[in-house]
């Protein structure tokens, strides 16, 4: 490749990367999210549906999740700066539609760690929340049928699905259910609705191994259980590889003397501090670990 052509390709790649991180037209960026302010006054469900209809690029848009004081301040300042919004309350994504689950953000299905409720809020009635312009945009819950303006949000870095925990650029879920390796892999594939790139976990570093083991040990229900992961040698003519990407192992953590050849699938063995052991794929493991890469959630 000529030097000029190489430079052109490099610049194109850099431009594409920068462009991919820009917000879609009409959206404003704050940190790693993009926001759209809707002046039309709608009920909460219609407002969230309107957000979803915007669908910039391939991202999913919902009513905003406010997860820090800085984010709260930024949104409030944007509202105050708009003469068509400053005297209006604005819907956000926090709702209590399912009382058993409590208050959740509709965009991430997470309970709020940061809260900015107004005095005496939330009250017993009203399952949807708004930023109240008469109370310094602190949150007030009210009937979802009320008609207010709204703020929509999508993330440039997708959050983990509900029940998954993040490590670096992937999300993981430890599932203490008795299945064979093939059933566990199929279960993972359907673990996130509308996403089919979830697989049994690929462990490609000591840090990732340690993270998964810590997640297993964090729940007493997982004790004395072996956990399937994605390592396999189902094609005996090939080397061990990960089911998610068919990559050969670059990092290993086999127990001493393993793999012994007794099986073509791999689990984390509780008897050996969760070091790796090869097992018959049709054996019933007592748990498994699913993984999805953040890039596959957009």
Automatic annotation (TrEMBL):
Checking Pfam families in the record gives: Lectin_C
What Gene3D superfamilies does the annotation carry? Mannose-Binding Protein A, subunit A
UniProt-listed SUPFAM superfamilies: C-type lectin-like
- Which PROSITE patterns does the annotation name? C_TYPE_LECTIN_1, C_TYPE_LECTIN_2
Q: Which UniProt keywords apply?
A: Disulfide bond, Signal
Signal peptide (from-to): 1-20
Q: Does the keyword Disulfide bond apply?
A: yes
Q: Where is the C-type lectin domain?
A: 30-153, 167-282
Report whether Disulfide bond shows up as a keyword of the record: yes
Organism's domain of life? Eukaryota
Q: Which PANTHER family match?
A: C-TYPE LECTIN SUPERFAMILY MEMBER, FI01427P
Task: Return the protein name.
Answer: DgyrCDS10970
Q: Which organism is it from?
A: Dimorphilus gyrociliatus
């Amino acid at each position: 490749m000529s030097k000029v052509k190489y430079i052109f390709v490099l610049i194109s790649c850099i431009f594409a990367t920068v462009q991919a991180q820009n917000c879609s037209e009409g959206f404003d960026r704050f940190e790693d999210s993009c926001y759209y302010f809707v002046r039309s006054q709608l009920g909460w469900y219609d407002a969230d549906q309107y957000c979803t209809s915007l669908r910039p690029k391939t991202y999913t848009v919902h009513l905003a999740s406010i997860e820090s004081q800085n984010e709260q301040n930024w949104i409030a300042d944007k509202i105050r700066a708009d003469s068509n919004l400053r005297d209006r309350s604005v819907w956000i994504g926090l709702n209590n539609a399912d009382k058993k689950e409590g208050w959740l953000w509709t965009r991430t299905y997470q309970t709020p760690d940061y809260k900015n409720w107004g005095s005496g809020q939330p009250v017993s009635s009203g399952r949807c929340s708004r930023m109240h312009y008469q109370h310094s945009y602190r949150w007030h819950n009210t009937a979802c049928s009320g008609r207010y303006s709204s703020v929509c949000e999508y993330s440039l870095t997708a959050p983990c699905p509900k029940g998954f925990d993040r490590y670096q650029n992937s999300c993981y879920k430890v599932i203490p259910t008795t299945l064979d390796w093939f059933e566990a892999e199929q279960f993972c594939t359907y673990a996130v609705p509308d996403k089919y790139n979830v697989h049994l976990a690929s462990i490609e570093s000591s840090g990732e191994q340690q993270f998964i083991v810590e997640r297993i040990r964090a729940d007493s229900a997982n004790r004395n259980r072996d956990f399937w992961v994605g390592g396999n040698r189902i094609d005996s003519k090939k080397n061990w590889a990960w089911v998610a990407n068919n990559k050969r192992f670059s990092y290993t953590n086999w127990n001493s003397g393993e793999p012994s050849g007794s099986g073509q699938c791999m689990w984390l063995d509780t008897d050996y501090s969760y070091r790796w052991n090869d097992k018959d794929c049709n054996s019933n493991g007592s748990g498994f670990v699913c993984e999805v890469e953040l890039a596959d959630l957009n």
